[in-house]
Amino acid sequence: MTLPTTAPAVSTTLPTPGWRLPAGPAFALLAALITSYLAASAAPSPLYALYREAWGFSALVLTAVFAVYALALLGGLLVFGSLSDHLGRRPVLLASLGLELASLALFWRAEGVVWLVAARLLQGLATGIATATLSAALLDLQRERGALVNSVAPMIGMAVGALGASALVQFAAHPAHHVFEVLGGLFVLQSLAAWFLPETTPPRPGAWRSLQPRLAVPAPARATLRQLLPMNTAQWALGGFYLSLGPTLARQVSGLEAPLVGGALIATLVLSGAAGIMVMRQRPAGRVLRESAVLLMAGVAVTLWGVQAHAVVPLFAGSAIAGVGFGAGFNASVRSLVPLAAAAQRGALMASFFVLSYLAFSLPALAAGLAAGRFGLEAAALGYGGVLMALCAWAAWRLGHAAR
């Protein structure tokens, strides 16, 4: 079936406010929004233990709920990632904010696993649409600062979401409600402010055709993408494990029931990832990739020592080391790929890259949930970490061989 090449008429009729935010405040709002979306994405992680106690589901079900979010986010990126190029940034962003508020309402009302799945599905879709739209809008306003915010703000957002939700779980009377009330209030205020955002790209035809997912790797980028695949898989699989099973593992290893322990473990990984980006973003990408593979492998090894010994210090120290490798390696991967595609091919190349990334983010976590149900969480973590270390060793060897 051939899709029409023109956008529907309704797409151009969104009322435009008479007053709009100046460029500086608009950029700050966009940065705050991308931080808030990722904070909301991490906020359910510290609550999973409460949900499991209340509804009695397994570690496999927990990781399945997490995987639904990752796959829905991937779908949002693939299907709607280019829509704001045709309809404009502002209307697509406002639509994603509506979906995000609906997902928070489902979380607030949740009475079982089906509610969680529905909420995570909507949240993943909203975050996927918003990620593509906000990333483009930030680059429209300030290319250099926008690229930095796109790399660092999501990690800061995940840390804030995990720590904030953990604090509410530990100290609030009804955390499963309060977490989403706080987030809902924040998103309502940001939605009102977003109404006054300036439009950074004019509407143009082709909206319906843009909904067709396009995956393609240009010939000059194929060898590099294959080279990056082991490292990229390891780092995203590590992130998926932390955001799904990490808080439960932290409580088991530490022997502490304080929810802040689990939130702090996630925050350690992602904040050290942001630090890795900041420190290494100007260094040659090939060198950073090799160093990141070693850092990730070493960090996982130290973390597994903490798991084996039930020792909190190596658990967190290893997470910090691995996080630096995660953040710096991801940034270097993007810097390695982007110059290898012409402007017209870049969107399809990055879509392909993110498909591989989010599959690594979600599917291994499902396998970890299955293993945890069969062998126990600590044994599953040790086996999972061993596989990640092997991938990192392979990546370091391939990257080192290619550099000769």
SSE layout and pairings?
Blueprint lengths: L22 H20 L5 H8 L3 H22 L3 H4 L1 H21 L3 H29 L1 H29 L3 H20 L12 H4 L8 H26 L1 H9 L4 H22 L4 H25 L2 H26 L5 H33 L1 H27 L1
Helix pairs in contact: 1-6, 1-7, 1-8, 3-6, 3-15, 5-6, 5-8, 6-7, 7-8, 7-12, 10-14, 10-15, 10-16, 11-12, 12-14, 13-14, 13-16, 15-16
The termini sit apart by 49 Å
**CATH first level of the largest domain: which class?**
Mainly Alpha
User: Based on CA inertia axes, which overall geometry fits?
Assistant: globular
Sheet having the most strands: none
Strand content: under 5%
- Tally the structural domains: 2
Q: Catalogue the unreliable spans.
A: 1-12
How is the quaternary structure best described?
Answer: single chain
Query: What's the number of helices?
Result: 16
Plain-language structure description:
- The protein is 80% helix and 0% strand.
- The protein is mainly alpha-helical.
- It has two domains: 176 residues, MFS general substrate transporter like domains (Growth Hormone, Chain: A), CATH 1.20.1250; 190 residues, MFS general substrate transporter like domains (Growth Hormone, Chain: A), CATH 1.20.1250.
- Helix 1 runs antiparallel to helix 6 and helix 13 packs antiparallel against helix 14.
- The longest helix is centred in the C-terminal third of the chain and has 33 residues.
- The chain starts with 22 loop residues before the first helix and ends with a helix.
- The N terminus is likely disordered.
What's a concise summary of this model?
It is a multi-pass membrane protein. This protein has helices at 23-42, 48-55, 59-80, 84-87, 89-109, 113-141, 143-171, 175-194, 207-210, 219-244, 246-254, 259-280, 285-309, 312-337, 343-375, 377-403.
